[in-house]
């Protein structure tokens, strides 16, 4: 009977350790999920108009040749 009870205590300790690991892993995954969830709306927002290199170059007069 004593061996059975100590085995149960060992199993309970292992179960608690497994649950703590699971809880820690779950918390890490939740942080990553929240970060991703916060990035998605930012990516879906319309971007402000930023002049591109081709737009900037086409609006400037061509360089004058130097003699």
Provide an overview of this structure.
- This protein is mainly alpha-helical.
- It has a domain at 1-42.
- It is built from two helices and no strands.
- The chain has helices at residues 2-44, 53-59.
- The longest helix is centred in the middle third of the chain and has 43 residues, at 2-44.
- The radius of gyration is 31 Å and the shape is rod-shaped.
- It starts with a helix and ends in an 8-residue tail after the last helix.
- Residues 45-59 have a biased composition (Low complexity).
- Residues 42-67 are annotated as: Disordered.
List keywords for this structure.
mainly alpha, 67 residues, 2 helices
> Structural class per helix/strand content?
mainly alpha
Radius of gyration: 31 Å
Unreliable segments (pLDDT under 50, ≥5 consecutive)?
A: none
- What's the total helix number? 2
Number of strands: 0
**Average predicted local confidence, pLDDT:** 78
Distance between the amino and carboxyl termini: 105 Å
- The amount of beta strand, in percent, is under 5%
Give the SSE string: HH
Shape: rod-shaped
**Percent helix among the residues?**
over 70%
Provide the fold topology.
Layout lengths: L1 H43 L8 H7 L8
Task: Give a brief outline of the structure.
Residues 42-67 are annotated as: Disordered. The chain is mostly helical.
């Amino acid at each position: 009977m004593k061996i059975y009870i100590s085995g149960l205590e060992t199993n309970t300790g292992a179960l608690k350790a497994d649950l703590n690991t699971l809880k820690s892993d779950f918390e890490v995954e939740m942080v990553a999920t929240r970060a991703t969830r916060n990035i998605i709306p930012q990516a879906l927002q319309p971007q402000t108009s930023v002049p591109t290199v081709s737009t900037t170059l086409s609006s400037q007069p061509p360089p004058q040749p130097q003699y």
